[in-house]
Design goal:
Largest interface: A-B, 39 and 29 residues
CATH architecture of one domain in chain A: 2-Layer Sandwich
Oligomer: heterodimer
Strand content of chain A: 15-25%
Number of strands of chain B: 9
Strand order of the largest sheet of chain A: 15-12-14-13-17-18-16
Number of helices of chain B: 25
Largest sheet of chain A: 7 strands, antiparallel
């Protein structure tokens, strides 16, 4: 901590909005992963100008800056691994403009995703991306990490809704990307480059989002299978019948058992898989599609098919799926959450390989996720205080990624590479490809001050898992 | 350091997913990570690991918690943050001692009924003699520091000139009793909301239940919530002793904060006698709805009523249906649900005194939801919530009356 820097930061954001005590800084050391790193300063800017001044100051002193929203990320994307400045953007939480005729909303990065949902839906509009943490997470974080969610199969992910951005670059320039038109091919598509850049290329201060009309109705179906294959066969059949569900979620037996032990919902513990399927659209179409889906589930050997009669029942069917991510912590305290994604037809094979990996390394590995778009969430549940076990975890993670790539998939569907997957990027990208990444990073951030240590593998990531004991 | 292995399990179950942020009323107002529940979990874990000491900042962060349990209810793993916060507050007291004002109250007032009675008498005189009128009128309250003038308004008019327990005998027999209960009145009913106590007795008499009002003392919650475990245990031990003199079917309370504390005496004192005591504890609404055949009033009470769920009722004693069932049992009464009925009103014991502005912001949300129902009455089965919401209603000049649901039932019985 340097007095000069503290003084300068205080001048920019005001005394109220710089946090220096150990206790407060500790609160900015973590995200939703199991690693934590203490920042030297926490600053909470309120406007573009303050963000710009902070970055200029950081550049001048060569201090790393780690931008963040609510800190709910699952890749370590925002944790300050080299100390420096944690830049908290949640004070910038205004919805700036709703343009109903052009189906556009302009927001600041700190707007909570669920708040945006509530706001646009009260105007009969819809912003589909729905990451699981939507009640707490922010749009800025969603854009930075390229967040997805269950609705991706039909509606796509955050990337598909970002039309334009105001970005403060690490060099302190305020630039605008994209715009407000559906068609826009002027120049390079910097908007797409920025989405999913994980806070390494710039800090978003304004976000222009595309909206769609809110679907009139939805129907939720929960289908329980004695055999995994039945669930696996259901997925392509629904799609081949011309129905694209709004979401299509899967939970495997380990995940089902965790949820049942925790919540006592009456789920059969001998079931091998559960599918949660939601169709939406016009009221009549939804009724008909709901029936077709239920029939398909039954004909593929489902032991139980529940169709929600109303919104309240639909919410009840979602309880198990929503609870699973944390319920699996009953097995062990540390969760290594992956989001390896494969083409949807490869899901059964992927799940079989995950089971083998689980056995080989003797690690519990519940699987759940978005079966409709191939985005699985294999979770290794372990104990970070046990370095030997964490080494096995790291090897298992590597094998999960190897299997993913072999099956034509990608390391991450919606969490980002961040810190936790950085050691594995070379499994997906060639040295030349990574070199292009590095060159792009250099153009925007020649001093490497913005979120350094993320995405690209390097020496600093050795022992990333086993060193967790120290946190 | 004491054995924290049980609490370590709570910490281990926190994945830092951040679901709790959206559930925390304080985070909702302050919009800063340090005010969220997972921050408190993480800081306490760092304290246990030896990476953090008890400092003023640590104490401040731990004091900014309503103990409303909403984070626990929202947490997919049910991490009991309130337990961690109370443990942290104990550590603060162990290292820094209690603030003088709390020490005075806990050690000299709560532990001595006589002194508490005396203090109540002074207050009563102040409220009734014209002294308060003079104080408010003269503007003398305005010169008091720290918004004392507004805080003074938190305490409503006391509903009796003497403590409730002096108003009634210990034994209140009925002919051919169907059940026999011991009544833990709590301090609020004893000194401020005597009408609640009168209604409890009236309703039980109407339903042919014999009521004993044993000697008793503060339940200890104010001390425990502030980290003064010694005082809490002393009070708990006394209450168990007082109540164990009587053989009853149930021990009833009209305050869920007291109720929850009483239910946990067994675990915290660890004696057989305390466990037996705790097993019998029930909220009055639960007792009436579940343990006896509650008589339907003959008269009707044509009122629209909205119900506020006290934190320690809905998430502590797990009472949601019972008070509503009790209200629905009243002919003519229309129960109209408000939005966010289960959200904290911001009272949280003395939180509204320590953090008045913040508490009022949380209360404002509640008042807005109440207003939207256009109900005539707000019912809430907790004297502390009743005080807080009553304060807000008076301040904003809202038309609603704020009462304990038992009072409505009693009124209905009387209007036959």
């Amino acid at each position: 901590m340097s007095d000069i820097v503290v003084q300068a930061l205080t001048k920019i954001v005001g005394k109220e909005n710089i946090l220096l005590s150990l206790e407060e800084r500790m609160c900015y050391a973590y995200d939703g992963t199991f690693r934590s790193f203490l920042p030297d300063y926490v600053v909470r800017p309120a406007c573009t100008k303050e963000v710009q001044e902070i970055l200029l100051l950081a550049g001048e002193h060569g201090i790393p800056v780690y931008p963040r929203g609510a800190g709910t990320g699952l890749s370590g994307g925002s944790v300050p691994i080299n100390g420096g400045i944690a830049m908290d953007l949640i004070r910038m939480n205004k919805i700036l403009e709703l343009d109903k005729a052009n189906l556009i909303v302009v927001v600041e990065p700190g707007v909570v995703t669920a708040e945006l949902h509530k706001f646009v839906e009260s105007h009969g509009l819809y912003y589909p991306p729905d990451p699981a943490s939507l009640k707490s997470c922010t749009i800025g974080g969603n854009v930075a990490e390229g967040a997805g969610g269950p609705r991706a199969i039909k509606y796509g992910v955050t990337r598909d809704y970002v039309m334009g951005l105001e970005v403060v670059t690490p060099a302190g320039n305020v630039i605008k990307t994209g715009g407000r038109t559906v068609k826009n091919v002027s120049g390079y598509d910097l908007t797409r480059l920025m989405v999913g850049s994980e806070g390494t290329l710039g800090v978003f201060t304004k976000i222009i989002l595309k909206l769609i009309p809110k679907p009139e109705a939805k129907k939720t179906i929960l289908s329980i299978y004695p055999k995994l294959d039945g669930a696996a066969d259901t997925v392509p059949e629904i799609i081949n019948r011309g129905i694209i569900p709004a979401s299509l979620e899967i939970m495997d037996d380990v995940a089902i058992n965790c949820v049942e032990t925790h919540l006592h919902l009456g789920l059969p513990k001998d079931a091998e898989a559960i599918l949660l399927i939601e169709v939406d659209g016009d009221r009549e179409a939804v009724e008909r599609q709901g029936q077709v889906v239920a029939e398909i589930c039954k004909s593929n050997g489902a032991m139980e098919v529940k169709v929600a009669k109303d919104d309240k029942e639909a919410e009840e069917l979602w309880v198990a799926r929503r609870a699973v991510s944390a319920a699996i912590l009953q097995l062990n305290p540390t969760k290594v959450s992956e989001d390896a994604t494969v083409p949807r037809t490869a899901i059964p094979e992927m799940i079989r390989r995950l089971r083998k990996i689980s056995q080989k390394y003797n690690l519990p590995l519940p699987v759940y996720g978005h079966a409709g778009d191939g985005n699985l969430h294999p979770n290794i549940v372990c104990n970070k205080r046990d370095p030997e076990e964490m080494e096995r975890v790291e090897q298992a993670v590597r094998e999960i990624f190897e299997a993913t790539i072999e099956l034509g998939g990608t390391l991450t569907g919606e969490h980002g590479i961040g810190l936790m997957k950085a050691p594995f990027v070379n499994l997906q990208f060639s040295p030349e490809e990574i070199q292009y990444f590095r060159e792009i990073k250099k153009v925007f951030d020649p001093q490497n001050i913005l979120n350094p240590g993320k995405i690209f593998g390097g020496e600093e990531h050795e022992g990333l898992f086993s060193a967790a004991k120290r946190d | 350091m004491r054995d924290y292995s049980q609490l370590q399990k709570e910490i281990d179950h926190c994945s830092k997913c951040g679901n709790c942020l959206a559930a925390c009323p304080i985070y909702g107002e302050l919009n800063i990570e340090t005010a969220g529940s997972r921050a408190r979990v993480f800081l306490f874990s760092q304290f246990l690991e030896g990476n953090l000491e008890v400092t003023d900042k640590f104490a401040e962060i731990m004091s900014l918690c309503l103990l409303c349990k909403n984070c626990t209810a929202t947490c997919p793993n049910g991490v009991a943050t309130d337990k961690l916060v109370m443990a942290a507050r104990r550590e603060v007291v162990a290292k820094k001692g209690l603030p003088l004002i709390k020490k005075t109250i806990f050690h000299h007032l709560l532990t001595h009924n006589g002194r508490l009675n005396l203090a109540a008498r002074f207050l009563n005189v102040y409220q009734r003699s014209g002294l308060r009128w003079l104080a408010r009128k003269s503007g003398i309250l305005k010169v008091l520091p720290g918004q004392l003038s507004e805080k003074e308004n938190l305490l409503p008019d006391m509903q009796g000139t003497s403590p409730f327990r002096k108003e009634f005998p210990k034994l209140n027999p009925v002919e051919a009793p169907k059940k026999k209960v011991a009544y833990f009145t709590g301090c609020m009913t004893n000194y401020v909301f005597q009408n609640t106590g009168r209604a409890v007795l009236g309703v039980l008499k109407e339903n042919e239940v014999e009521v004993i009002i044993p000697d008793q003392i503060c339940c200890g919650v104010p001390a425990e919530a502030s980290g003064d475990e010694d005082t809490f245990l002393k009070l708990a031990e006394k209450n168990v002793r007082f109540f164990s003199e009587y053989e009853v079917d149930a021990i009833i309370t009209d305050c869920p904060s007291c109720g929850l504390a009483l239910m946990e005496y067994g675990e915290k004192l660890g004696t057989e006698q305390a466990r037996k005591f705790s097993e019998k504890v029930k909220d009055i609404t639960e007792f009436l709805v579940k343990d006896i055949e509650l008589k339907t009033p003959k008269g009707s009470l044509p009122l629209t009523v909205t119900y506020h769920d006290p934190c320690h009722a809905i998430r502590g004693m797990k009472l949601q249906k019972e008070p509503r069932q009790l209200l629905k049992n009243i002919p003519g009464l229309e129960l109209r649900e408000m939005n966010g009925a289960n959200q904290c009103c911001g009272s949280a014991g003395s939180f509204n005194l320590s953090y008045y502005d913040l508490s009022m912001k949380i209360l404002d949300k509640k008042l807005n939801n109440i207003e939207k129902t256009e109900a005539q009455v707000v019912a809430t089965a907790c004297p502390a919530c009743e005080m807080q919401i009553g304060h807000g209603v008076r301040k904003k000049n809202l038309p609603q009356k704020v009462v304990h649901p038992i009072e409505l039932l009693y009124e209905a019985y009387q209007s036959k």
